[in-house]
Amino acid sequence: MTAPPLVLQWGRERYMIKYDYEDLRDTTLGQFKEVCREVTGVPSSGMRLIFSGATMKDDSSPLAYYGIYPGASVKLIGRKEDGERGRAPTQEEREENALIHRLDDIANEACDRLSSPMQAYMANGQLYIEQFGSAAMAGISDPALLEIRAAERKKLDDAYKMVSESLMQFLLKIDTISCPPDADKARQRRKQAVRQLQGWMDEMDRKRDLVAKSEATISQ
What we know:
Methane Monooxygenase Hydroxylase, Chain G, domain 1; adenyl-nucleotide exchange factor activity; BAG_chaperone_regulator; protein-folding chaperone binding
């Protein structure tokens, strides 16, 4: 399953940064600070990064060393340099930031609500394939076992329907947000949010198809 993005919180701003488990093992705190500097403008020498209430200090240690995982939230404390801080945002920038906030809220809500159900569906789907979709089930007519299998299949179907319908609702919410042609950052964030949710839907569909394929193998 696609790893949920890391959330960088800086005041009222929230940035979604794609890191999977391997990235977290390979990326040092110092390297991550440079990423934070690029997206926020806060100099790396003047920022403080906090995870689970503790300040991360050793720039040479990988992010995984601090227990950070995909989907975790990291808090940044720091200010932009004076030149950046002194310029007031334009009306267009304020409107674009508002759009980005709306898109982030939708993506974050989808992640909070659906990450666990999706992970459960993927795990339960694989378990179903191993228990009820193997060649060992061929020819078995035990009513009790078949009843259990039917009950587990219904649970999978219900879980798939709930998650896929919820994903579609979140995609429709994103679709209602119109970004002006010159709002490049907001348009990019919109594309990222759509790709993220569509990727989750594709993974759900693939697991659903694998479950169906395993049943078709039995019936042959």
